Amino acid sequence: MTATRPDVMTQPTARTCPFDPPPEYRTLREQRPVAEATLPDGIAGWLVTGYEEARAVLADPRMSSRRRRLRTGSGPVDDAELPVPTPGNFLMMDPPEHTRLRRLLTGQFTVRRMRQLTPAVEKIVAERLDAMAAAGGPIDLVQAFALPVPSLVICELLGVPYADREDFQRDSATLIRLDASLDDVQRAHQALTGFLGRLVRAKRAEPGDDILSGLVRTGELTDEELAGVGVLLLLAGHETTANMIALSTMCLLRHPDQWEALRNDPALMDTAVEELLRYLSVIQYGVRRTALEDVELGGHRIPAGSTVVASLPSGNRDAAHFTGDPDQLDVGRPYRPHLAFGHGIHQCLGQQLARVELKAALSALLDRFPDLRLALPAEQVPMRHDMLVYGVHELPVTW
Amino acid sequence: MKITIDQDKCVGAGQCVLAAAELFDQRDEDGIVVLLDPAPPQEALAEVEDAAGRCPALAIAVQP
Ligand code: SF4
Question: Do A351 and B13 make contact, defined as CB atoms within 8 angstroms?
Answer without folding.
Answer: yes
